[in-house]
Specification:
149 residues; alpha+beta; Nuclear Transport Factor 2, Chain: A; 4 strands
Length: 149
């Protein structure tokens, strides 16, 4: 009986390790997709960022509305100074969206005119099998101040 428990425990550890490894791979792929997409927004190519977003994103907002809204938020912030991952979490279920493979990524970001922002990007595994951004939200970090450049 002790051997059966030990074998079962070992099998559970191996299965848990494999699942963790798969989640880690998904997170890495999603982060790469998010950074590529963010590069478009950083360059001001908002129309192309809409084109390259997930189908669910493009269904939720027209390209013209996206360009107008993101431009109104991003342009006043000035150039990107730095961005690094603060947290990234794999999820299969999120509020108000169909189940699927998602990664919620929080970036700590510094812009020319905003020294501390939190960007939350949610890539999803799209129907074509690639990771694409399905959500983008930016907010001032509680400890931020505006620059005076």
């Amino acid at each position: 009986m002790k051997h059966l428990i030990a074998i079962t425990a070992a099998a559970m550890l191996v299965a848990g390790s494999a699942a963790h490894s798969q989640d880690t791979q998904k997170i890495a792929a999603a982060e790469a997709a998010a950074l590529a997409w963010l590069a478009l927004t950083d360059q001001g190519d908002f129309a192309l960022s809409w084109d390259q977003a997930a189908g669910a994103f493009r269904t939720s907002i027209s390209q013209a509305d996206w360009v107008s809204r993101v431009g109104a938020v991003r342009v006043p912030l000035g150039k990107l100074i730095s961005r690094h991952v603060h947290a990234a979490t794999f999820a299969h279920s999120l509020p108000q969206v169909p189940d699927g493979d998602y990664v919620v990524i929080e970036f700590e970001t510094q812009f020319e005119y905003l020294d501390k922002a939190i960007e939350t990007i949610t890539p999803m595994l799209d129907k074509d099998g690639s990771w694409k951004v399905s959500g983008y939200y930016i907010r001032r970090s509680p400890a931020s101040s505006t620059g005076s450049h």
